Amino acid sequence: MKFLVSIIISVVIVLLISCGGQDGKPKSKLEITQEVFGQTESGQQVDIYTLTNTNGMQVRITNYGAIVQSLTVSDRNGKTEDVVLGYDKLENYIQDASYFGCVVGRFGNRISKGKFMLDNKEYTLATNNGPNHLHGGKKGFNKVVWDGKSVKNKESVGLKLIYLSKDGEEGYPGNLNSSLVYTLTNNNELQIEYEATTDKATPVNLTHHGYFNLSGNCKSDILSHELWINANTFTPIDSTSIPTGNLPSVENTPFDFNSPTAIGVRINDENEQLKFGLGYDHNWVLNNVDGTMKLQASLYEPTSGRLMEIYTEEPGLQFYSGNFLDGSISGKKEIIYKHRYAAVLETQHFPDSPNQPDFISTILKPGETYKTKTIYRFSTK
Ligand code: BGC
After folding, report:
1. Could you give the domains of the chain?
2. I need a surface site. Which of 44, 129, 220, 296 has the fewest CB within 10 A?
């Protein structure tokens, strides 16, 4: 009997070792699962998808607002923790005014006074941020239910999300057919591919609005996170956060992140721009942009060793340092989201482009396809 037990134990051990990864830890299965997350006020069912890669990295995405609800990655000791802010329940996302983890659209960022001219016609949008329009209006892409479909490949799993924004929705012209593909690879990359077509010319500027805190489960603020942004110039703002149109150099200013610098080092400097943004809430003009995928920014948290690298085809990066978080939001696992407990890094075209003739155009015309990709890659050092 004793002999039999020891044979069984040996077999189990051999099986466990043979299922293990290179570091001896059991490998996870590459998979995507789907479950019900809740219902909207009008009774529409909302799902949540869990994407897992072979390293155990996991991303949970809901088709409400295309929101990344959680993103768990290892620290340098292999401890897996959540690195994004958000809520446990759908109800909280329906009420949310902070845009946690969503995709913002039809136009991410601000449009001055909620007005723009296109083909000799003036369009009026909601002014939902002081005198300006922000993140697509009162009911932007973050507040709608997308159609979701799982995608499985050899080395990745993905979720395709589709939404038709009707002509006139939130004041924008044209039926805009939008699609997103979130992909989790075995390389620990979260990739986002955006696509859209329209039947009338319209501004489009889609971006992911994840609130990152790489300490894991929001253990500290983001002031000691080291940020690198490959940008020699930025778009300064007026007192209502609309770009002035100038593109000054970042040299010798708190906006120079050309070598990795802790976010907190200069955030309280005497600087008019930091006053206007109540901290960092600005768009950087990325270097060497030619529409191809480039490594353009990174965020590193020294205690956990977590590093997030951002590859993008976009010309701009909005960095918002969680200045409006004030401890009044209780998020996942009842964690209180305090002042500057997150860094939002939004790859996009420049704010207010529809009113700024010198900025790269954000107008999509019939017959054209809006197509752009951003990758968030996680590792440790
Ligand atoms: C903006 C902030 C705004 C926040 C809303 C960011 O993208 O730049 O000014 O408060 O979104 O959550």
Report:
1. 31-380 (2.70.98.10)
2. 44
